[in-house]
Amino acid sequence: MRIAIQGELGSFSHQAALESESKATIFPCALSLDVFKSVESGEVDAAVIPIENSLAGSVVEHFDLLFQSNVHIERESLLRIRHNLIAVPGTEFASIRQVLSHPVALAQCRRFFAQHPPMTPAPFYDTAGSVKHVMTLGDRTLAAIASEQAALAYGAAVLAWGIEDNPANFTRFFLIRRGASGSILPEADKVSIAFTVENRPGSLVSALQVFADHSTNLCKVESRPVQGQPWQYVFYVDYQVARGTPPDAPLDQLRRRCMLVKELGQYQAATPLS
Fold first, then answer.
1. Any idea which fold 2-80 has?
2. Which of 63, 112, 173, 174 is catalytic?
3. How confident is the model at residue 249 (pLDDT cuts 50, 70, 90)?
């Protein structure tokens, strides 16, 4: 199976892809747009994209691309995010002076930097990319913060494990495929949709009331601006349904109350991965 990810090999997306499909061939892409294009064109079979982190929030670009692209969500997974201090093999912990990583990763390891003041955090474009850069330079005063997968990918050494401030750090990923939703899994109990409503009093409340009428559990509501239409919004909703209830039960009623409804995918709600 060919799976596209955004970012370098060794990223958390790489790890999530392998935990979803252990024998997959991973195709790294520089941009999220390239990931979606590779799925739409058939260059890859699927893609694994992060959609939300439990601490940092939503990956808003991916909401926009899900709405704009001819893809559907097939699977959801949760990955426990463990940040590790990684360096060139043979590096002494005490010799490190600068630590590279994505700004979000650095922000999630503030306690570590407070405990080790000789180390200065420095922002880099990607967690795995920071490991690749440190290994390319071979500088033993540098280290990176990234996943264990990144250390394995580039032959680096992990000097400190699990240095994140908050252990309740999870990222939710979607596995997406080309085209609209096809056959529905019998165990599907979660649905992602996008919809727009008229800009008038009560229209959004009326749309959301549909979910209460069908006893569905709204897991997430996100709004994003409509490009080229100032102060108009697309609303993204994830909802869970009771066992035995058709996942698309609210959609017919919702379509009568909304200007547009796009079903993004029906799938089984994820359980945390190790």
1. D-Maltodextrin-Binding Protein; domain 2 (3.40.190)
2. 173
3. confident
CATH topology of domain 190-267: Alpha-Beta Plaits (3.30.70)
Active site residue 171: yes
Burial (CB count <10 Å: 0-12, 13-18, 19+), residue 232: middle
Q: What is the pTM of this model?
A: 0.91
- Measured distance CA(190)–CA(181) in Å, rounded: 13
Say which of 171, 195, 196, 216 is annotated catalytic.
171
Query: Given CA atoms 40, 46, 51, 55 in this order, what sign does their dihedral have?
Result: negative
The residues with which 218 forms a beta bridge, in sequence order, are: 239
Work out the number of other CB atoms within 10 angstroms of the CB of residue 246: 12
Provide the β-strand partners of residue 75. Answer: 175
Asked if 2-80 and 190-267 have one fold, the answer is no
**Sequence spans of domains, the chain:** 2-80, 84-160, 190-267
Tell me, yes or no, if 173 is annotated catalytic. Answer: yes
- Report the pLDDT averaged over residues 263-273: 85
Is it the case that residue 243 has pLDDT exceeding 60? yes
